[in-house]
Write a sequence for this structure.
DNA sequence: AATGAATGAGGCTTCATTCAT
DNA sequence: AATGAATGAAGCCTCATTCAT
């Protein structure tokens, strides 16, 4: 088998196992058994168990990062809502295409190492900045009302993560539906216009 | 030292370590070193490393559960928004009082065991149901507009978790401020009245 | 409770536990739980777990030793067969009265320690000598035919031990019956008079 | 080193240690030190300390079982006494060839576990049945006189065990001599023909 | 490129014994 | 005479990693 191919094959099996059982409950023995290779072979392709996990995480973050773009408000661009829906759809698709990764990103990494957690934190931090910047833009354009942008950005990320983690499993809601629900929630809130709860 | 006192002392040190390093990276050796007790003493008070973690988790979930109440809409009750703010304040206080727990609940348990994950999932499921029921009530009262309540409930939980996890650390935002920001977001959304992003 | 009484109480419970589970599977915790005393109290009465076992073994060996007598062939003494039956009956009674001990003597001690095994070996060695001497006597009197007395003595002890260990449990054979069976076997063998198997 | 060879090497060292010190007093550390291997290597070949003991026991029982055959009384078969001597010689040889095993089978297993004791009890039970059946056959042929066959079978096993355990060590008696002594004892008993001890 | 036997640090847990009260 | 909390040595087992073939 070609080296690159073999490498990929190991990655795939490892990803599945990490997602199913978590990082700590997946042993190198499990991975090589699943991949059908010898113990030593694993170390020909990856420096360590940690390294393979790290690579999986990097790939995932890269793919996700490429989904997320600041809203384009130049003339001729699609309406912002549509852009946001598209971004969310892309994110959802990344996970839907490979549920395996979902569990990893949402949970698996934590507690591994300060290094891992920092990496993840930094990633989410960058995403949060993009969101904040978009909100700021919206505000400048008079579309978004003044708000605690940092809170809103984090809330949005958290909402997305939780909905993904808990609802993607159940087949009873389509990705589009979920995306629209979240966007609607963040746009208008849940209150009837004019109503007050205070 | 009194047994109950000693037990508590061990719990406190274990909680701190679990929170700092995660479950897997904390060894019983670490715990007993921190608590200043002998190896055997630990097992006098807890059946296993897993058992002490389980107890910490149980305690936390119990405390949190006691914070969360469905909105009371009977006559004379405080306005719903205020009630929600109070609930959120209580939740924030639980974590603020003991940051240690935060990390555990938000992340640490994952990947330990199917049992643990299920327990946590069930807890969040129960919280989600309370939120959904409150939304339903609001809808009946004409305050809340129709929406996908399951999505909104999960989004709310996710938003809270993420904000807690990332922003409680920074001293630059008070609990009240964060709670108000989230409530506002979920009430009215971020759009200027009348604006549209579609 | 009187010290002597308490000591006895601990011994009884320990004996039962050792017999039921063996030496290694019986912990000091088990003994004190059964005896209803505190940990420290145990060590007021016995130096160690090993010491209590040793005492039980000593008692048993003493009791057994008192059962076994060389055959008396002086005038007016009961016939030798009757004496042997009586000896066996006494031995059986010791065990029947306290099955608890049976398991200990037949098996439990082994593997504890070189010291224990030696003690047991020496005990059986003394019993063997008594038997050998009795056979020698019988030979001198023209009752017993020449034979390898050492082998016969050991065989007799082994036969008794095995029959005790395996058949005393089953209620379907009385002690008297077992004793008679063994004595008959060792007296006449199993062959029909005049038959040959060579 | 070849896996099968290494496995055997570990087994040999373990057998020696178990025989010398008993199961409980032999630690995995002892075994690996004796075998000159690393801790992990042991577990590459055996699931647990218990498992290696179990295998040793199984092997021994299998070898012994293959020694023991019911007496063949068809025409042309060797005389029964000769067959019995052969069986005993085979049994003695198994132990003589590997004294190590003797201690294990005669004693070591006891108190390990209910499972072990049961296994051993069942093995001896099967042997007893073979002996009983042979006695029955002898009776039908008019060679063996009526007797309590169950007692005789157990007595025979016990006699053999004890003689093996205590006399094989001393070099002063050959296997053949011991076997002949026991067979003679069980055939004719110890009494002079016509004598009575009642 | 691949293998798989070997390694050994490190983890969890048990339990006989001691000692302050 | 009694208690029971505390101790810590010792045991079993796992598993990521290495290396000779």
């Amino acid at each position: 088998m070609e080296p690159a191919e073999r490498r990929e094959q190991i990655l795939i099996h490892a990803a599945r196992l990490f997602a199913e059982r978590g990082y700590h409950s997946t042993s190198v023995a499990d991975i090589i058994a699943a991949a059908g290779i010898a113990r030593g072979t694993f170390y020909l392709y990856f420096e360590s168990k940690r390294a393979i996990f790290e690579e999986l995480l990097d790939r995932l973050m890269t793919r996700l990062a490429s989904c997320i773009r600041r809203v384009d408000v130049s003339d001729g661009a699609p309406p912002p809502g549509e852009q946001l829906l598209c971004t969310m759809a892309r994110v959802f698709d990344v996970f839907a295409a490979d549920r395996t990764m979902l569990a990893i990103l949402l949970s698996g990494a934590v507690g591994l190492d300060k290094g891992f957690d920092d990496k993840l934190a930094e990633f989410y931090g960058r995403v949060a900045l993009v969101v904040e910047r978009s909100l700021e833009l919206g505000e400048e354009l008079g579309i978004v009302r003044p708000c605690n942008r940092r809170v809103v950005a984090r809330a949005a990320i958290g909402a997305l993560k939780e909905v993904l983690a808990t609802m993607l499993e159940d087949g009873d809601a389509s990705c589009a539906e979920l995306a629209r629900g979240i966007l609607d929630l963040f746009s208008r809130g849940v209150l009837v216009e004019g109503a007050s709860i205070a």
Observations:
- Chains B and D do not touch (no CB pair under 8 Å).
- Chain B has nine helices and no strands.
- Residues 1, 3, 6, 37-41, 44 of chain B lie near DNA strand F (CB under 10 Å from a C1').
- The domain at 50-188 of chain B is CATH 1.10.357.10 (Tetracycline Repressor; domain 2).
